[in-house]
Design goal:
With 175 residues, the chain is α/β, with parallel strands linked by helices. Helices cover 42% and strands 17% of the residues. It has a five-stranded parallel β-sheet, with helices on both faces. The chain is globular, with a radius of gyration of 19 Å. The structure holds 4'-phosphopantetheine (PNS).
Length: 175
């Protein structure tokens, strides 16, 4: 029997850690649907359509991976799509409590859907979308941590939102 897996998340933005998990999932399952949560209440840096396009570009080369969006309960979405597996990445012990709660609640909601945890490469074990946004906002580099597409878009956004330095700190132009 073919096994279809859903890999859900906010992906705001997608990182190379997420892509690492997608790659591993695509080797393990017959099909992987990367499902972006539609959550109008949570203010995102990238809108849903941007995230969908970025993910499609980054993961579209894997022939058994597709990208979709969902709202409502994850287990309802997985059931509608005929998926029996939910994939989640586990980076460190700090992820465990939240993921454990979610996995058990999802199991309670639908015992026929199993959560499978996968570990990304250790070089991404500290990486998160939240830290990526913070580093970029404060002027640091995230090269090698996100797809180039994301890096470029983050750069433009940070450039726009960063406040200009106070007058006295700005470089004096030579007359
Ligand atoms: O990337 P994230 O933000 O950690 O992903 C969290 C996500 C989208 C997997 C989680 O918030 C979710 O499944 N939301 C859908 C609503 C739902 O099913 N809630 C009950 C989960 S126990």
């Amino acid at each position: 029997m073919k096994v279809l897996a859903v890999y859900p998340g906010s992906f705001d933005p997608v990182t190379n850690g997420h892509l690492d998990i997608i790659r591993r999932g695509s080797r393990l399952f017959d099909r992987v649907i990367v499902a972006i949560l539609r959550n109008p209440e949570k203010k995102a840096m990238f809108n849903l359509e941007e995230r969908r396009r970025i993910l499609q570009r980054a993961a579209g080369k894997m022939s058994n991976v597709s990208v979709d969006t969902f709202d409502g309960l994850l287990v309802d979405y997985a059931r509608r799509r005929g998926a029996r597996v939910i994939v989640r990445g586990l980076r460190a012990l700090s992820d465990f409590e939240y993921e454990f709660q979610m996995a058990l609640m999802n199991r309670r909601l639908d015992a026929g859907i199993e959560t499978v945890f996968m570990m990304p490469s250790e070089s991404y074990s500290y990486l998160s979308s939240r830290l990526v946004k913070e580093v970029v906002r404060l002027g640091g580099s995230v090269a090698g941590l996100v797809p180039q597409d994301v890096e470029r878009r983050l750069g433009t956004r940070a450039g726009k939102s960063r406040r200009p330095a106070p007058r006295k700190l700005r470089k004096q132009r030579k007359p």
